[in-house]
Amino acid sequence: MTTAIGDRLDGHVLRPGDPGYDEARTVWNAMIDRRPQMIVRCASTDDVVASVRYARAHDLEIGVRCGGHSILGLGVPEGGLMIDLTPMGAVRVDPERRTAWVQGGALLGALDRAAQEHGLATTAGNVSHTGVGGLTLGGGMGWLARQYGLSCDNVAAFELVTAAGELVRA
Fold first, then answer.
1. From the CB of residue 21, how many other CB atoms can be counted at a distance below 10 Å?
2. Does pLDDT of 1 surpass 90?
3. Domain presence at residue 170
4. DSSP E strand stretches across 23-102
5. CATH no. for residue 152?
6. Do residues 81 and 35 touch, judged by C-beta distance below 8 A?
């Protein structure tokens, strides 16, 4: 089904009944069984901006899913718009600077693998299928945190989309 938002996306829109809809709305806590009006599987930051602006223009509750580990299922809004970041899972590591660039849908396992290729480790969490973004926003306690700090203590910058649909760098 084509929607006004679907025409402007690099990713794609899923609605109830579409192939892949039920898998996309399923999160780690199996007690969460909410049905968003639409799921936008974002392929770019522009998709996230367009999704937020569309949801605001149509008075839809917004949920953002990365790893899907929110115990409360906050990424899955009943009747709202779910921004699914899982297609945006790229990770790059700069071994000289000892830094990583991580997209919003990246999982901890991808970050760990990319760091380990260069003999590096992260302070991030303990569960490989946790989203890096959510983990970091929640503080991010991992095996090396006592020595090197929480994940949030090791962030150089964030590129984020505000609730107004503006892209900012913090």
1. 18
2. no
3. no
4. 38-41, 62-65, 81-84, 91-94, 99-102
5. 3.30.465.10
6. no
